[in-house]
Specification:
Number of strands: 11
CATH architecture: Beta Barrel
Mean pLDDT: 81
Radius of gyration: 19 Å
Strand order of the largest sheet: 1-2-3-4-7-8-10-11
Distance between the termini: 40 Å
Shape: elongated
CATH class: Mainly Beta
CATH topology: Porin
Structural class: mainly beta
Helix content: 10-25%
Largest sheet: 8 strands, antiparallel, barrel
Number of helices: 2
Oligomer: single chain
């Protein structure tokens, strides 16, 4: 857990240094840019977070795909309350793992410039994980070896780019870690988010 938090802090710093520099140099703060209009009370943001990782391990490769559609509503200026559904699929030489999660989250939007903001979000989710192992004798036969349910903590700190009003794209570090369950799982890395917002 300590190593995961250190990695998360390091990635936030790593992503934050160039993004902050971009925010200060790429545009002047006029107060009228797209990011200045994002995060006001009564706005509804709809997004989808995605991540892809490919790692070479012995004896084979591991590929993980993450999809996480979400809806967030700004109850007051810059403070959002929302929820998400997550699906993680990992394919490896030994078999595959599917993880489904659903839960609430809160966030706070920090405007950095006319085009850039920082929108850290934290939430909890109920996650179920199913792991299937391939039979070494017959590759066409799969045996479900493990089913695990857990309460998980979810952190995501994306730097948001607002190229136009009502549209955003973000990129930053994330950390998902189980707080309960028989086999605790921790996943961390970088994730992309794409979406838009409307006034309701």
């Amino acid at each position: 857990m300590n190593q995961s938090l250190k990695f998360f802090a390091f990635m936030a710093l790593l992503v934050g240094i160039p993004a902050t520099g971009f925010a200060q140099s790429a545009t002047e703060d006029t107060g009228r840019g797209p990011s200045q209009r994002f995060g006001h009370k009564g706005e509804l943001a709809i997004s989808s977070d995605t991540a892809l990782s490919i790692a070479h391990t012995s004896p084979g490769d591991t590929t993980t795909i993450t999809l996480q559609p979400a809806v967030d509503y700004f109850v007051i200026d810059n403070f959002s309350v929302g929820g998400f559904i997550g699906l993680d699929y990992t394919s490896a030489s030994y078999g595959s793992t599917t993880r489904f999660s659903i839960g609430p989250r809160v966030g706070y939007n920090l405007v950095l410039s006319d085009l850039v903001s920082l929108w850290p979000k934290v939430g909890f989710s109920f996650a179920t994980t199913n792991t299937s192992f391939d039979s070494p004798e017959d590759e066409d036969v799969s045996v479900t070896a493990n089913d695990n349910s857990a309460l998980a903590l979810n952190l995501f700190v994306p730097f948001m780019f607002h190229p136009a009003t009502h549209f955003f794209a973000g990129f930053g570090p994330f950390l998902d870690t189980d707080l309960s369950g028989d086999d605790k799982v921790t996943v961390f890395g970088l994730k992309l988010t794409l979406g838009g917002w409307i006034e309701v």
